[in-house]
């Protein structure tokens, strides 16, 4: 297999093949996800919750993101993995200035990430342009942005009313214009995320709880393996059901995204 690159992702997009993404935080799971055919591996700051036991992602530091990115990248190198590696910029590491964002992004790229992800719209467009001009591929993230869960008032669907939907559309277009080549849409109504996807031919939408109309899908690994005690968000499917191994579960996820059987529209109508 050839390494996944931005041109390859654009080719997939152009021929209508869905892009698959999973989070991973360590060497072994990253290698397994790669072997299962997952194209994009996100070292998400969700590691704050699933690895560190924090109550939100706001407490994750850049140092921690660098540590986990290095672990994932070593795991992929060991198996000659081909996945595209995206590192999350944590809360506070890109908010002060474009220069601060560039310094933080450089740390994740030094750790081996191919692309960085940052949350929010509007004020982030200038930062995205600054990074992209300097050779940093950027994935944006709109809708439910967990780093600001407290100002959003909880983990809830975003872009429901017409004013919020308009803002989401505007921010999406601005981010593509600034050079973002991926955009995570989290907990956004299916019709809205499908519409945004059509409007963004060079910025690939990756949905989580956003219906099946996006260019790709992402899930938190622990969620799709069904190993979280307590309540999972309702858009999650447990791919360990009927799977003989973690690798099989991840391969089932890839197959389901590719053939359109995940996500289930019923659960994503919001
Ligand atoms: O941190 C994370 O895992 C994420 C995904 C849910 C998109 O940002
Ligand atoms: Na994240």
Automatic annotation (TrEMBL):
Reaction equation(s) it catalyzes: (6R)-5,10-methylene-5,6,7,8-tetrahydrofolate + 3-methyl-2-oxobutanoate + H2O = 2-dehydropantoate + (6S)-5,6,7,8-tetrahydrofolate
Where is Mg(2+) annotated to bind? 45, 88, 119
Which sites are catalytic? 186 (proton acceptor)
User: What PANTHER family does the record point to?
Assistant: 3-METHYL-2-OXOBUTANOATE HYDROXYMETHYLTRANSFERASE
Q: What does this protein do?
A: Catalyzes the reversible reaction in which hydroxymethyl group from 5,10-methylenetetrahydrofolate is transferred onto alpha-ketoisovalerate to form ketopantoate.
How many and how are cofactors bound here?
Binds 1 Mg(2+) ion per subunit.
* Superkingdom of source: Bacteria
Which gene is the coding source of this polypeptide chain?
A: panB
Subunit note: Homodecamer; pentamer of dimers.
Q: In which pathway does it act?
A: Cofactor biosynthesis; (R)-pantothenate biosynthesis; (R)-pantoate from 3-methyl-2-oxobutanoate: step 1/2
Record-listed 3-methyl-2-oxobutanoate binding positions:
45-46, 88, 117
Enzymatic class: transferase
Q: Which InterPro entries match?
A: Pantoate_hydroxy_MeTrfase, Pyrv/PenolPyrv_kinase-like_dom, Pyrv_kinase-like_dom_sf
Q: Where in the cell is it found?
A: Cytoplasm
The text of the family note is:
Belongs to the PanB family.
Cofactor dependence: Mg(2+)
- Please give the organism: Hydrogenophaga luteola
One Gene Ontology MF term: 3-methyl-2-oxobutanoate hydroxymethyltransferase activity
The answer to keyword Magnesium applying to this record is: yes
Q: Which UniProt keywords apply?
A: Cytoplasm, Magnesium, Metal-binding, Pantothenate biosynthesis, Transferase
Q: What is its main location?
A: cytoplasm
State its Enzyme Commission number(s).
2.1.2.11
Return the protein name: 3-methyl-2-oxobutanoate hydroxymethyltransferase
